[in-house]
Design goal:
Strand content of chain A: over 45%
Order of helices and strands of chain B: EEEEEEEEEEE
Number of helices of chain A: 0
Radius of gyration of chain B: 13 Å
Mean pLDDT of chain B: 92
Helix content of chain A: under 10%
Shape of chain A: globular
Shape of chain B: globular
Strand content of chain B: over 45%
Largest sheet of chain A: 5 strands, mixed
Distance between the termini of chain B: 37 Å
Oligomer: heterodimer
Distance between the termini of chain A: 39 Å
Order of helices and strands of chain A: EEEEEEEEE
Low-confidence stretches of chain A: none
Strand order of the largest sheet of chain A: 1-9-8-3-4
Largest sheet of chain B: 7 strands, mixed
Mean pLDDT of chain A: 90
Largest interface: A-B, 25 and 30 residues
Chain lengths: ~110, ~120
């Protein structure tokens, strides 16, 4: 089971870079890592996805070390609107229903 | 492109009743999956439909069922409602032709239906 472990909560000041780490010790060879952001009373929103090394898009970067047992979502210069819950999800086409695990996510609070 | 649409947005039901929730996926998406989100259990997978067939199923009792129509729209039904069924029910769609978790086919979620059972 590619279950994930994330910190329950984090606080950051506006304008700082935030790094949220997800542990996935049992990640399988075919698995890739996907991060979602969720605001209260809304559905999760896709942020970024990667398999290894580094992936960057217009909102975030994803760092994955060579052993792939963890990944770090990096949010540059956060603003108050980045206050949300962030979920790390690990899986592949072979992932069955029982292995689809969102976990509790990381609640990020951005402080003015 | 229009996003995933879920109706109704809010629903209040009484114990023992049944409820039907609706989900319209993004145009072209054939995979629709359903999730239950509660403060205590987090986000849990219910089931997934692809081309009108249930392809994956989570660990929920048979009171929870669903179906998908030929236009990919999906409905979820909960019978004999219990107080513990109070939750935010989320629907997601994706291209995911090869499986629930296809690369470059992330899940696109709707904003959910908030169900309260009294």
């Amino acid at each position: 089971l590619a279950k994930t472990t994330q910190p329950i909560s984090m606080d950051s000041y506006e304008g700082q870079e935030v790094n949220i780490t997800c542990s996935h010790n049992n990640i399988a060879t075919n698995d890739y890592i996907t991060w979602y952001q969720q605001f209260p009373s809304q559905g999760p929103r896709f942020i970024i996805q990667g398999y290894k090394t580094k992936v960057t898009n217009e909102v975030a970067s994803l760092f994955i070390p060579a052993d792939r047992k963890s990944s770090t979502l990096s949010l540059p210069r956060v603003s108050l609107s980045d206050t949300a819950v962030y979920y790390c999800l690990v899986g592949s086409q072979q992932t069955g229903a029982n292995n689809l695990f969102f976990g509790t996510g990381t609640r990020l609070t951005v402080i003015p | 492109k229009a996003g995933v649409t879920q109706t109704p947005r809010y629903l209040i039901k009484t114990r023992g009743q049944q409820v039907t929730l609706s989900c319209s996926p993004i145009s072209g998406h054939r995979s629709v999956s359903w999730y239950q989100q509660t403060p205590g259990q987090g986000l849990q997978f219910l089931f997934e439909y692809f081309s009108e067939t249930q392809r994956n199923k989570g660990n929920f009792p048979g009171r929870f069922s669903g179906r998908q129509f030929s236009n990919s729209r999906s409905e979820m039904n909960v019978s004999t409602l219990e107080l513990g069924d109070s939750a935010l029910y989320l629907c997601a769609s994706s291209l995911a032709d090869g499986g629930l978790f296809s690369y470059n086919s992330p899940l696109h979620f709707g904003n959910g239906t908030r169900l309260t059972v009294t």
